[in-house]
Amino acid sequence: MNGRGDGGASVYAKVVVDLLHPGHVRFFAAARALGSRLTVCVVPDERVAAYKGRPPVLTLEERVEIVAACRWVDAVVTDGPRVIDRAFMRGGGYDIYAFGGAHEAELATKLADCADLPEAMRAIIPYTPGISSTLLRHRLAGG
């Protein structure tokens, strides 16, 4: 492992990116700043629907294209596991798993999903206040 922010670490993150907004962009920039390479898993539609109770607004293909166009993202995958453990990180050559949570319950779930990782391999990136895909959906609905 190369360590955080030394320019050599490989960072892994997974996202939904239902509707791209500045919070996503800031997350990608912060995650990329932890190392020299950022790989982002865009969560497949079926998993999003199971987790959030509804499908994403954009299709997986659309979300992948958007994330791949972000200048801080070096690679995009769609087949990452829900639970992030040392074997997965080692197998992918990743040093740091970057994630955030919109609220305490979501953050607790994400921490449980990477409980196998030592603290040095986890980077919690704070959410951007006042913006989320859920808030954008409400705006679009006239709320």
From TrEMBL:
UniProt pathway: Lipid metabolism; Phospholipid metabolism; phosphatidylethanolamine biosynthesis; phosphatidylethanolamine from ethanolamine: step 2/3
Record's keyword terms, sorted: Lipid biosynthesis, Lipid metabolism, Nucleotidyltransferase, Phospholipid biosynthesis, Phospholipid metabolism, Transferase
Matches recorded under SUPFAM superfamilies: Nucleotidylyl transferase
Entries under Pfam families matching the protein: CTP_transf_like
Stretches of the chain forming a coiled coil according to its record: none
GO biological process, one term: phosphatidylethanolamine biosynthetic process
Alphabetized InterPro entries for the sequence: Cyt_trans-like, Ect1/PCYT2, Rossmann-like_a/b/a_fold
Record GO cellular component, one term: cytoplasm
Any one GO molecular-function label of the UniProt entry: ethanolamine-phosphate cytidylyltransferase activity
Segments forming domain Cytidyltransferase-like: 18-139
EC number: 2.7.7.14
Top-level enzyme category: transferase
Stated family: Belongs to the cytidylyltransferase family.
NCBIfam families assigned: cyt_tran_rel
Protein name: ethanolamine-phosphate cytidylyltransferase
Organism of derivation: Methylorubrum populi
